[in-house]
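To the wet lab folks,

You asked to see what we're planning to order before we commit. Fair enough. Below is the target structure as tokens, and below that is the sequence we designed to fit it. If anything looks off to you, flag it before the synthesis order goes out.
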């Protein structure tokens, strides 16, 4: 272990310790987490999944992500927004996802809010990236303890999303999505994935 608390893995690379040694988690850490995402649908998916993750470990969601994508029609907001009570009940019977009625119904309401935003001519990606003035906020924390659970930017974005009708988007959930989508780079300074530019 280095002074920055990054863990050295069998391949010789230093990584943020939260990914442990699970190959799926390590691949997510190396290729997705903290990589800037500018596609509105992909951002919407990550925000919804972080909402489903609330109270659970992210690896639980990661292992179920393909099931979520199947069950939620590829996270296409246009399709989710049309879900009715029968579809919600079907999702409640799907063991491949997190079966939480409030979160499922929240996803439907969030999809409708996404479409409302689109009708106003605002892209979801633009709304998200405005929270960091359109550029990645690079933090380079030295230790996991230095990584906040939420920030003023995530608090402001959470408030805006809630005001627009999005659900399960509290400031901690929003900050997790900002990290996942690369709006902020919270890879530890010693991690091989930390931005060097």
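Sequence we intend to order:
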């Amino acid at each position: 272990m280095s002074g920055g608390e990054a863990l050295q893995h069998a391949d010789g690379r230093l990584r943020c310790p939260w990914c442990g040694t699970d190959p799926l988690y390590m691949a997510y850490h190396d290729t997705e987490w903290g990589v800037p995402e500018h596609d509105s649908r992909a951002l919407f998916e990550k925000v919804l999944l972080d909402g489903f993750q609330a109270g659970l470990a992210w690896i639980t969601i990661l292992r179920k992500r393909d099931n979520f994508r199947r069950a939620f029609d590829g996270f296409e907001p246009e399709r989710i927004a049309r879900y009715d009570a029968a579809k919600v009940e079907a999702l409640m019977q799907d063991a491949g996802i997190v079966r939480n009625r409030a979160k499922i119904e929240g996803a439907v309401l969030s999809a409708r809010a996404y479409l409302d935003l689109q009708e106003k001519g605002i892209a979801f990606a633009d709304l998200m990236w405005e929270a960091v003035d359109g550029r990645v906020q690079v933090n380079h924390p030295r230790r996991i303890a230095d990584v906040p659970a939420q920030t003023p930017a995530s608090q402001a974005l959470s408030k805006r999303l809630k005001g627009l009708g999005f659900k399960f988007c509290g400031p901690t959930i929003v900050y997790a999505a900002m990290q996942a989508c690369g709006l902020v780079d919270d890879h530890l300074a010693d991690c091989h994935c930390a931005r060097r530019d």
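Structural context that might help your review: The radius of gyration is 17 Å. The beta strands are 7-8, 14-15, 137-138, 184-185.

Thanks,
Computational group
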